[in-house]
Amino acid sequence: MSSLPLKHHTSRKTNQNQKLVSQRIDPACLMRIKSLELRAKSVVEGTWNGLHRSPYHGFSVEFTEYREYSPGDDPRHIDWKLAARSNQHFIKRFEEETNLCCHMLLDLSSSMQFHSLGYSKADYAKTLAATFAYFLSTQRDASGLIIFDEQVESVVPARFTRGQLRRILIELERPPQGSHTNFVSPLKHAIETIKKRGLVVLISDLLSPLEELNTHLGYLRAKGHEVALFQILDPSEIHLNFNESAIFEDMESGERIALNPKSAQANYQQQLNRHLKEIQNMCRKQGVHYHRLTTDTPLEAGLSDFLTDRAA
Amino acid sequence: MSFLTPLYLFGIIVVGLPILLHLVRHQPKNIILFSSLRFLEHKPPQTNRKNKIENWLLLLLRAAAVMLIIAAFARPFFKNTDLELTAASTTQQTIILIDTSSSMQRGTLWKEAIQKAVELIQQAKQNQIAIYTFDSRLKAVKALKETNSSIQHQSPIHDQELLTKLAPGWNPTNLGQALTEIASLLQQQVASDPNGNLLQNSTIELITDFQAGSQINSLTEFSWPEELQVHLHQLKTKDSSNAGLELLSLDEQSQATVRVVNAADSEQEHFSVAYQRTPGDPLQAKPVYVPRGQSRVVHMPALDIPQPLTQIILSGGEHEFDNKIYLQPREKTNLTIVHYGIPAAGATENPDYFVKRAFPKTKTRDVEFLTVGPDSPQILMAVTRIHLLIISRELSSDEIELVQNYLQQGGVVLFSLNDEISRQTLKPILTKQKEVSQKVIVDSIDINGYALLTNIQYDHPVFQMFQTPEYSDFTKLKFWNYQRLALPAEIPHQVLARFDHENPAIVNFPVGKGKLIVMTFGWTPAESQFALSTKFVPILDAILTLNSNLIDVPSQFTVGERIPFPEAFKAINIRPINQDQIQLTAGQQTINETIQPGIYQTTSENENRPIQKFAVNLAIEESNTTPLTIETLESLGVRMQQPGKSMPTSQPASEIRRQALIRELEQKQKIWRWLIIVALAMLGLETVQSKWISGTTSAIRKA
User: Using one digit for the tens of pLDDT, what is the confidence trace for A172-188?
Assistant: First the structure.
């Protein structure tokens, strides 16, 4: 059996969470639902409202100041009463409309297409991202999405508007195109474009070299962002439980090797554990929330672990 | 030992293949796509197969059985002496065909042709060589039959000597006929050839200038043999431009109409045409503009000089051979026709009135018509000068004798039985024997209305012109009365027409050398509609031309054209002016000698036959010297060998024959059967051996 140093959160679980465990949905059943929105809704529905805390205070309707109208501004924000009085157009400015800004970085490289359970890691990761987005939208929080492989494929800037969830879901529905994983470009993009402090959630299988990732996670943390790292793995990737000899082809590089999995299993697991330990150490050093999810784990468990961890 | 189908022997590889496959390490076939190979080490899977051969004997037995079956498929056989002999038995045949038409006289063409022929003879020393020449006809210099006859004939020196005797003539080119004749000759040889591969081994080496006027159309009607190849050696001159002259017509005043033809590849377009009496003395030169590849007709001016000129020359053409034509105006024939009848000018009831008008004077003939009445003085001319004698009255005994004499010498007599009196005249003319003449019955016959002509012999010269349906209607020709003529079998005769399928109407009697035509009716309107019908003049004219002296020789011929000399004469000397005489034997109608353009005259042993002159000119086709392409012959079905390809050295036909022999030999020997039997025996042994091995292993296991 696996000798993976899995993180046990059971000691920290609250009574509320124990109640929720009984209501968890089997991922295999969940993945049969075609609609991503419905999947996310099923996971989120009536569970963790108000479980997170916002780094900002105040409310979105709070008025701050007037600014003179200039062409290009949304005319909806013109204070017409003031215009009637003074015959001048002013824009009403308010406080931030949301209290949390979450940026999700989703890896959809070729390695994420691996599957042994009838759905791929990418499907699982998409559902996870959709769940986050749905959850945040119910909390009236802003959410954004960056999909990447060897480069940034698509970007949905973080905001809380009515159609934001739909935009994110549409982007998630797109079929993946890239080949290998490169963390540099999405993290660089995030560092350069995200001006306001918030939550950055990176969802990937993290099977590529970690040097660059370590550096860029450090930059993100330095900018004051809260970073959560979700590693998605297939159970077969952990156990290498293949029976017959075969030619193994790397999904990213296309490299092939003939292999007897039985004989290679021990060495593989040793190597993998070393890699996973490196990730854990890196996250601990950087103060990053690290959560490893295998694709047979119920999503609620992973999500609730994260929220509990964050709330703690 | 040899094999009929040796390619099957490659099947022996099959024996080693299973062993190799057994020994080869297998790679797994299924491919698993995996997310990352970073944590995997390359550990090749090990197969559990044994890579060591345990039962050598079994393997050898199986391999031997497979090899024997494969060898059986390859059909082995043992060679014998017959096969080796056939390999060297075939010989090649080269037929050199040289163009000797007049166009080969241009420039250095003939020299090149002979040079090429010598080269070919040198190259084909090993082959049997036949040499032919052609212009309008094919002539054998060294015929196909001679090639096999003697060793002397096969020497190249002998062949070269034959070539030196050749020279180009003046005849036009008929390449199509020459090729078809050669191909037919070879096909005839094939019929008698035991091997049947003569055509494949024969090549026609055609040496010619291959001009546009080569007349190759006859090849369209000929099915060219697939196996027979023609190798064209086309000769070309440096100066390709050429123009020719053709005589179209020549009237009595010696005014000629000529056509000037310019070759398509000619460089000249401006020419002049002129009369010529002596070389270098042109008269009445007329400039002519003829574009390339076209022709123009020129009417030469009439010359007001007493003696007609005999040559027209063309200036401007590069090659001299076809720049001159000879003229010979047609001379008038003088005809004498004597009518023994009653002269009565202007009386339509008299036969003489119509017969006199039946022979008018024309451009080509002058007719002297003499009517001799019962009271007229005797004619004083020689009977041989009379061309036709017509009798329509009773003759005196002297006159009968004259007619008999005339007939004996080859004269033509037309006798009209127009009344009862003339009956007595006919009998002595028909025969001198009184017993026979008494058997001849001539009497009047009563006709109910009118009689019509039937049973007409259209193949006789008298009726030949009416053969075609539009002229063969004689139903409008009615006869009110006629004489019934009954002839005994002793008198030879031919009835040319009858009245209503019964009584003879027109009868031909051969008397002596001459011919007696008897009409049992009169032609006056009171007796019949004959004189008034459209048939009258043509029939009388046809009777006139029965006279053998009157064969009309035209005055203009082209070289190679058949000249119709009268058969009646034993010999005619044809003498080109200022040249040697050509002697013709009796019955010979064509001239075998190479006849060149010029003016000729005929003389005969017959003193009364006048001297006749005729001109012989070149055929205009020879002036069309534009070279044709090889594709022209190919399009007519002739199998051409590509130019530049050397003489065939491969012998595909002999190879086919050898293959057939090999097949026959293999079928006789049938070694494959024995191989199959041995293979089956091997398989039997293998079964026994494998059973024994399995028995011992199971015994070991049990133990």
Answer: 888 877 778 888 888 88
Average pLDDT, chain B: 81
Q: Which residues of B touch A242 (CB under 8 A)?
A: 32
Which of B26, B33, B36, B42 is the best residue to mutate to test the A interface, defined by the most A CB atoms within 10 Å of its own CB?
A: B36
* Structural domain spans, chain A: 26-55+98-311, 63-94
- Kind of pairing between the strands at B441-444 and B412-416: unpaired
Query: Are residues B430 and B528 located together in one domain of the fold?
Result: yes
- Cβ distance B225 to B199 under 8 Å? yes
To test the contact with chain B by mutation, choose from A111, A113, A234, A247 the residue with the greatest count of B C-beta atoms within 10 A, namely A247
* Domain range enclosing B143: 91-236+627-650
pLDDT one-digit tens code per residue, B610-657 = 677 778 888 888 888 888 888 888 888 888 876 655 555 445 556 677
Query: Token pair of B149, please?
Result: 């006859």
pLDDT in tens, A211-241: 888 888 899 888 888 899 999 999 988 888 8
Q: What residues of chain A lie within 8 A of the CB of B31, using their CB?
A: 246-249, 256
Give the C-alpha separation, B299 to B276, whole Å.
16
**Do residues B260 and B343 share a domain?**
no
Q: Say which residue the tokens 């009858």 belong to.
A: B498
Query: Do B389 and B513 fall within a single domain?
Result: yes
Q: What is this model's ipTM?
A: 0.75
Class of A26-55+98-311 in CATH: alpha beta
| pLDDT at residue B169 is higher than 80 | yes
CB contact under 8 A, B39 and A234: no
Query: B600 and B454 in one domain?
Result: no
The residue behind tokens 């040796």 is: B6
Q: Residue for token digits 């007493």?
A: B306
Both B613 and B631 in a single domain?
A: no
- Give a yes or no: residue B298 inside a domain: yes
On the 0-12 / 13-18 / 19+ scale of CB atoms within 10 A, B602 is buried
